[in-house]
Amino acid sequence: MSINVHNISKYYGSQKALDEVSFSIKSGEIVGFLGPNGAGKSTMMRILTTYLNANEGSATVNGHDIKTAQKAVQQSIGYLPESNPLYPEMYVREYLEFSAGVYHLKDSKNRITQVIEATGLSSHESKKINQLSKGYKQRVGLANALLHEPQVLILDEPTTGLDPNQLIEIRQLIKKVGQNTTILLSTHIMQEVEAMCDRVIIINKGNIVADDYLKNLKSDANQIIEVEFDYKVEPELLQQISKVREVTEMIHVPEFTYSLKFATQEDMRSAVFDFAHDNKLKILALNKRNKNLETMFQELTQE
Ligand code: ADP
User: What CATH number is attached to the domain comprising 179?
Assistant: First the structure.
């Protein structure tokens, strides 16, 4: 396991920011750490990067304990904090040279050239950081996080404040980097996870409320069929509808429309059609939609 978190709790005074959080991440995974503002994402990331101590629980990064082997943890992690702390007066290459010095990197010149190329900064390496757009500043932050060839990257809201084009570029870059690195990235936007991640861990008020691969979550998402009949269905027949195979919930949407929720991905329109036919009901409209991940996230994190 690249990251192993076991029952981590964190208090700020009397406020509990993390409540016995546990998860593990296998090497090579790109995992989205998703939750509304204030859910505890940054706190968890700061604990994993050893910038903050947990009150309870334990965690390892690449097998190194965050309490007893902080240096080894820091060496295996590249971290892009939420507010990317760059030196605005430095030139891009100069800043990376400075960082490489802090890491005591050997052969730093070649490594800097490599990360500059990998993050698409070649044409900007001689520019001052404060002359760069937000998207390019994020690239510099990523280049800096990658300098010491960490096996794990922790990116705290890496795309916040980027315009749509910059967003696409940074997402592509993260995916590219993720081909050889384990990545845990936080965001409060589900689309972001869909664009970059294999798996999502959803946190709300310091508790993990979902942890699964996107493909499973997509297949778990309920199927909803809205059916409109030509008149209001008699109560006895309504009882029958709710017994159609796999129906988990039925809502009457005025006037003659019923919304049926199914716990299956199999297209259930034909079952509804057969039901109508057997009971001599006329269908005026039949629509299928799948509950998308965005709705699922809202439901898991609402008050
Ligand atoms: P997220 O990154 O998901 O937005 P945070 O980890 O920043 O959430 O915050 C989790 C909770 O802890 C929030 O309620 C926040 O107000 C609180 N919190 C975060 N940092 C501090 C701090 N330094 N002092 C007091 N409370 C904090």
Answer: 3.40.50.300
Distance of CA 127 to the CA centre of its chain: 32
- Pair (180, 238) in one structural domain: no
Q: Which of 11, 15, 21, 80 to mutate to test the pocket of ligand 1 (most atoms within 8 A of CB)?
A: 15
40 lines ligand 1 (CB under 6 A): yes
pLDDT digit string, tens, across residues 108-163: 999 999 999 989 999 999 999 999 998 899 999 999 999 999 999 999 999 888 88
Q: Which domain holds residue 99?
A: 3-214
pLDDT in tens, 40-99: 999 999 999 999 999 999 999 999 999 999 999 999 999 999 888 889 999 999 999 999
CATH of the domain at 283: 3.30.70.260
The stretches of the chain forming alpha helices (DSSP H) are 41-48, 70-76, 92-102, 108-118, 134-146, 164-177, 190-196, 214-220, 235-241, 269-278, 293-301
Cα–ligand 1 centroid distance for 289 (angstroms): 37
